[in-house]
Amino acid sequence: MPVEKDNVYGDHISHKFNSELMELKTEFLEMGGMVEAQVEGAIQALIDGDSDLAEQIRGRDKLVDKMEIDIDEEATLIIARRQPTARDLRLVISVIKMVADLERVGDEAKKIAKLAIKLSEEGQAPRGYVEVRHIGQHVKVMLQDALDAFARLDSEQALRIMKEDKRVDEEYQAATRALLTFMMEDARNISRCMSVMWVLRALERVGDHACNIAENVIFMVKGEDVRHTSVEEAERVVGR
After folding, report:
1. Any residues with CB less than 8 A from the CB of 54 and at least 6 apart, and which?
2. Residue 9: pLDDT over 70
3. Do 115 and 123 touch, CB atoms closer than 8 A?
4. Is 219:225 a contact under the CB 8 Å cutoff?
5. Is the confidence at residue 211, as pLDDT, over 60?
6. pLDDT band (50, 70, 90) for residue 23
7. From which residue to which does any coiled coil extend (predicted)?
């Protein structure tokens, strides 16, 4: 486990409570690693036209769902047994919120896998794969960095992820405009290009969920909710 940058969660009198919190964090990071692999595999399946890999990604979605339920139950039990306060309560509540974002990332990977299968049957689209690879790499790094920020309780890194989300939105909009222009010029490829557009939308949503995780990291560390605020306001919170 990486060293925490912000030492806001110290040891407790109860060693059992310490181990419960550590286990909760470990399970969350394990789930994060799984959904990272789901996203990467789904993108690879699409680019390679690998329907077998895409089917594997779809099949693993149930395991992601189960992990969400298990972590939710563990977090609920910690609240019931320990009645945590202040920083510990923020950690447990944040995990409950963030695990829902991870589950939705898994759902987006499943969507991409389904579209990969569709395109492998119809034939690859003539445009959009460069954009898929580029935006896919961008959001994968965001997700990795968000999980790392959680592991190290690094609010500054979390802030950087929030800033990256705007860049992903801009890249997504540019890619969508390019595909729409191409479809207007050649209507024969509308169906396959639309599938690629849905893939790009799914990737943009992965970036949104990574940003949500980053916002929760800031809440855990600083005790202030930066959801629905500007990046400038989040900078002020992190800088305090």
Report:
1. 42, 45, 46, 113, 114, 116, 117, 120
2. no
3. no
4. yes
5. yes
6. very high
7. none
CA distance 222 to 183: 47
| 129, two tokens | 């794969």
The tokens for 141 are 């790094």
Cα separation of the two ends of the chain: 26
DSSP 188: G
Structure tokens at 188: 């024969």
Band of residue 124 on the pLDDT scale cut at 50, 70, 90: confident
| pTM (two decimals) | 0.91
Q: What is the reported pLDDT for 80?
A: 94
Token code pair at residue 19: 């181990």
Count of CB atoms situated within 10 Å of the CB of 98 = 25
102's CB contacts (< 8 A; 6+ apart) are 28, 31, 32, 35, 64, 68, 209, 213
Helix axes 155-185, 190-222, angle to 10 degrees: 170
Structure-block tokens of residue 111: 């969507």
Domains delineated in the chain: 15-239 (1.20.58.220)
| Residue 172 near residue 203 (C-beta atoms within 8 A) | yes
Structure tokens at 21: 């919190």
Kindly give, in sequence order, each residue whose CB lies less than 8 Å from that of residue 24, ignoring residues fewer than 6 positions away.
71, 74, 75, 78, 91, 92, 95
Integer angstrom CA distances of residue 1 from 4, 64, 88, 129, 132: 9, 22, 18, 36, 32
Which tokens belong to 151? 């592991």
